[in-house]
Design brief:
CATH architecture of the largest domain: Alpha Horseshoe
Shape: globular
CATH topology of the largest domain: Serine Threonine Protein Phosphatase 5, Tetratricopeptide repeat
Amino acid sequence: MRKKKLFVVVPAALAVSGLFLASAAIGESVVELFQKAKQQVKLAAYDDALKTLDALDTATAAPGHEAERKQVEPPIAFYRGVSFAALGRKDEARASFEKYLGFVPNASMDAAMYPKKAVAAFEEAKKSLGSSTVKESNTIDGSYAAFHSGPAAPQETPNEAWGDGPVKFLMTSDEKREWAKASDSVTRSEFVTKFWAARDTKPETPENEFRQEFERRVAYADATLVQGEVRGSMTDRGMVFVLLGPPTYVGRRPLGTGDDTSDAAGMSTGNTHAAEAAIANANAASASGKTSSGKQLQIADQASGTQIRDSGNNWREIWHYRRERLPAGVPYQQVDFDFITRKGYGENVLQRDSNTLNTLEAAKKGRKG
């Protein structure tokens, strides 16, 4: 009988570059670790699979590899869920599957391909996420609550590029003109001091809480919302995040196909040797005799039956902000920020309608002291 695939769709655009990364503990590349983990799951070597997935997690968590992290984070969560469930670790399995479903909300699992315990845990996770309590939260909200940006860096005299960074989302027209005239370090330093003082919501305290929260949001966006060479806080999603904070909940789906999961973008354990052969063929066909590790991961996914859909084509991500998370003065009960990814159009491009623009403007004004 022909086995079915687990059909999934991954929510963020997968810009893969420079993927080859050595694991300090194992000395294997991301491609090798990924294939090894899948094979271990297929062979029911679940303890070993968890160790390999931990190594893969560590390898892709290194600074500068945010795009690669996007590529592997969903399957890491999925295969951890399978392994935890098979080992009888129900709570960990459900938590892993819930994380996975945060990326791929409409995924389904083929009961013929995975242990009964894994299928049960997966269905429990889907049921849990379908409840109204869980639905009102999201992975962004939870991860931001747990996010630690580390100790504050010593404040240095800002250079001329400071005004082109995330603070530009807060600047008024007058402030932008004033900043443009600041031509030396003393003038710039005075401007920055005045800029943050005007936004200090609690001037009676020694700390500027508004500035601290803004800089924490910037750090989170830079760590999680990066797009290719663009720092996370300077993307459209980053702009919305630094101004409004985490959304109430997030929705993701492919453009044009609604919630259809019938496209063959499967995630199933497959044949490692087929993947190795496909990579070898690609290397032989290359003028340089080798291919990039990012290309190798894509080839391996296709050859082994595990494909992570390139959602750079036709993707919609919606951030829903309910009344309690909207700035004062916004008359709406809910505002939805719609980000479109489509080949030839752009990645996570904010659709700027009157409601979203009015809300962003209110966020700027509402933070002015």
